[in-house]
Amino acid sequence: MTRLCIVRHGETAWNAEHRVQGQLDVPLNDTGRRQAQAVASVLGKERFAVIYSSDLGRARQTAAPTAAALGMEVRLEAGLRERHYGIFETHTYAEVQVMFPEEYARFDARDPDFDFRTGESLKDFHRRAVDSVTAIAARHPGEDVLVFTHGGVLDKLYRYITGLSISAPRDFGIPNCGINRVGAAPGGWQILVWADKRHLKAALDDLPQ
């Protein structure tokens, strides 16, 4: 079995404001930096063959303390980026409901073809996120791999493994700096641990349900 330990990035000011980040490069806030150190205090004691991260700053910042503790480099993967939210980016979810009511209704309904006019459809994002994670697993058969990414990517991976539709409401947590462990074997993928936040004093789950 190939084992992947996958961590959502730490908190940002925009997470706390429920503001849509998407693929904009928003840095960690003080809480997020403390969360990244808390992750390092746990994962810095483990052994991994390789570390991957989204190339967005908040994921790279989250990866840095653990990589330093392990004395390892971080490989950047653009495929691990968050979904591109197009016209929603920079606005809070409350604001987009007022500014773009028709578009928000399609987003809220999890329309698989809705792409925020200038962004990425749920269907395309699902394919991109799953392809990126499964490609990483295929490169490291039988190894332990550490990945730092975003809530949307974790959402799509969970659905891929469990068979939950991309249009179904989310009934699982994805907290900032939560630790998630999955296994990939010839017989298929499985969830080993999900949304572990015992190492954290507090963590937001600001993603739309």
What do these coordinates show?
This protein is α/β, with parallel strands linked by helices and 209 residues long. It has a domain at 20-85 and 129-180: Phosphoglycerate mutase-like (Rossmann fold, 3-Layer(aba) Sandwich). The chain has helices spanning 13-17, 30-43, 57-70, 93-99, 101-108, 122-139, 151-162, and strands at 2-8, 50-54, 75-77, 144-149, 179-185, 188-196. Strand 5 and strand 6 (188-196) form a beta hairpin. It is globular and about 50 Å long.
Overall shape: globular
| Portion in beta strands | 15-25%
Proportion of helical residues: 25-40%
**How far apart lie the N and C ends?**
31 Å
Going by CATH, the homologous superfamily of the domain at 20-85 and 129-180 would be Phosphoglycerate mutase-like
Radius of gyration: 16 Å
**Largest sheet properties:** 6 strands, mixed
Please identify the structural class as seen in this structure: alpha/beta
Beta-strand segment tally: 6
Highest CATH level, the class of the domain at 20-85 and 129-180: Alpha Beta
The CATH architecture category of the domain at 20-85 and 129-180 equals 3-Layer(aba) Sandwich
Overall pLDDT, averaged? 97
